[in-house]
Amino acid sequence: MGAILCLYFVLLFSVWTHGAVMPKQLLITEIVAIIGFAFAFVALIGKEKKKTLRAIVTLPGFLPFILLVIYILIQAINNSYTANPPPHYGLTLQDHINWLPNSADTALSLSSLLLLTTYYLIFLTTRIIIDSKKRESFLLLVMICNATVLAILAILQYLAPQKFELPLTGSFVNSNNYVAYINLLIPVTLAYGRNLQQYAKNKQEKSHPGYLFYFFGALMIYSVCTSASLTGVAICFAIVITMLFIELFPYLLKQKHLPMTMLKIFAVTIPILIVTTMLYINGLDKLKSNISELENADLSLNGRSLIYDATWKMFTDGHELFGVGIGTFKPTSIYYLRQDAGYKWFPKFAHSDILQYLTELGTLGFVLLIIFIASILLSTRLFKNFAKRSSISDSKKYIYRKLHNRMQIAIIFGLAGLFTHACVDFPLHIPGITISAVVLTALMRKYKTKKRAK
């Protein structure tokens, strides 16, 4: 019970405290996540009756995680630079072992390592305590309702005649971060409603709450359309259209007529798409004004390209193999951005998570990170079951005929949308977004079924 309460607290608290980007809120999130894992691990040892060491080693992704931790620890200990405070911007080289991973700031690298460890512990906590479809369903329900309330708040903020002193989109300061979070939950919401509809059909029941979740999804889509994030809007529509196509594809493959249930789905979803598109077009004036303001700001489209150029210079300036140290982008980027006389503001992020992690970790560390993520994904239910299929026909049968993995497919769409957004922004550096993504990833698993006594 303690682990479950900690997990729900972290999920909700990290979202509603502006993504837990402030130090105090982040510290609370990390402490509660560690306590939650301690509860879950004690329960795991007692339930499985395993020895402690064996229970640790058999955790999914454990060995790749240890390799990544060792790499980052070496980076942090091997301090290579000292960042000079303003007005004397620059980097002062320190004595260090240049053939080992190194970091420009030990404290920042250790702080980033703690946050990475927190994410992994949240993943393990979810895998341990969410051990049944019932618990998974309730957790998803909480996440969907939370996202719906956030979407309603964002819509009210958009429609409010008087703007607040602190510009918020939902609970996020940055509208791009809000859109990245909502796009993660939109496919999950639609799949949840579709599963309820399918369940009612199997039970031969006419009434079901599935359409309510379609409405929740429509609210989320509209809230995305009211934002100034062109990338977020494009990702949102790509996800929704692809999900509709996947629902339709099995019937095209069999060359059969659509059943009435599917016709009802399209009768509801297509008007929703049309209405949200019209609302989006009607709000183009506001969107254009936001873009024009953005172009005149320090962080304009041109300014973003300057950040990308400076980040790439940072990577190619002798940091290709070991990087500059995880979490040290801001103090290091000052030196490279300062070379451009027209740039006066120094960002904390590269506005491309992929490029920033590559620059901070280097090629070797980035490969270790990819291996760690791959080991996590390979431990999930979808990939395990797909790998067991020996032929293409069996794989198609698994994907298109056994779509109780519809939710797993929806989670993959949400994660794919998030990683796509991370190529041009920094959603993975917002703990509230990353924690939700980690929890959803942990839900892609196979649950043990209890055998009935004869």
Your description of this structure?
It contains 18 helices and 2 strands. Residues 290-302 and 386-404 have low confidence and may be disordered. Strand 1 and strand 2 form a beta hairpin. The chain has one domain (2-294, 354-442). Helix 9 (230-254) packs antiparallel against helix 17 (406-422). It is globular, with a radius of gyration of 23 Å. The chain is mainly α and 454 residues long. It has a two-stranded antiparallel sheet with strand order 1-2. It has helices at 2-16, 23-48, 52-57, 62-77, 106-129, 133-159, 175-202, 210-225, 230-254, 260-282, 284-296, 301-316, 329-337, 353-378, 381-388, 392-401, 406-422, 431-442; strands spanning 81-84, 90-93.
Please count the beta strands (DSSP E, at least 2 residues each): 2
Number of folding domains?
1
Please give the share of residues in helix. Answer: 55-70%
In terms of DSSP E residues, the strand content is under 5%
Supply the helix-strand structural class. Answer: mainly alpha
Measured distance between first and last alpha carbons = 31 Å
Q: Can you write the helix and strand succession as a string? A: HHHHEEHHHHHHHHHHHHHH
Outline the low-pLDDT stretches.
290-302, 386-404
Largest sheet: 2 strands, antiparallel
Radius of gyration using CA atoms only? 23 Å
**Strand order of the main beta sheet, please?**
1-2
- What is the residue-mean pLDDT, rounded to a whole number? 78
**Overall form:** globular
Number of contiguous helices: 18
